[in-house]
Amino acid sequence: MTTSGPASAGCLCCCLIISWIIKIIITISIVIGLALLFFWIIVNPHKMKIQIGEASLAQFNFTTTNDTLHYDLNFDVAIQNPNKMMGFFYDMVVVASDQENNYVHSKWEVFYQGRKTTTTMLYNFAGKRELYFGDSNERSRFIKRFEEEKRRGMFVINVKIEDFRVRVRLGKIRIGVFQPKVRCDPLNNVALLSDHNIGKKATQNSVECQVQFKATSIMEPLD
């Protein structure tokens, strides 16, 4: 025996509503997906390219009487924005050190880079730093390596980009805050420009850095 009435009509109505809701959700998802696809095709976003190069040392001396390192390092950091429709706001720290981080010198940078441009920043890190070693063996290893590099007139220098934050500008929209990871290989042959070494060319004093993006916030309007 079957029955019909308000209850069955109500169930049918609920099923129709659920069906329409599902169709609307699917339609919206397709529209959003197509919009993102067209956006990607039109904007064609590319991450920035970073190169560290033209490095040289005007001075790099270690005084054994007081374990003080005197340094005068010159290099540049070139950042290229290959995008036709995107600009970048940068907030970063440029750090230089020897290969064992016995000395560290850094500078904070904040600037905007427009579309299809290359920004080259010149750095001169000069000063002195008293070094502290864990024991006499560590000190001996440092002095031995330092003297070997000094004899050949070439030193290994690390230049890093740290605390790197990027905001992407697209028209009037600032697209989130990104914290890319930037990995730069050491500069293996930075020339010490002494009297007997003037004009000597380094075989590898520039490196391309690897940039890996990771978003940390969402889209927001420009102020």
TrEMBL record:
UniProtKB keywords: Membrane, Transmembrane, Transmembrane helix
Bilayer-spanning residue ranges: 20-43
Keyword Transmembrane helix included in the entry's annotation: yes
UniProt superkingdom: Eukaryota
GO BP annotations listed: defense response to other organism
GO CC annotation: plasma membrane; plasmodesma
Subcellular compartments: Membrane
InterPro entries: NDR1-like
Principal location class: membrane
UniProt-recorded name of the protein: Uncharacterized protein
Record organism: Cannabis sativa (Hemp)
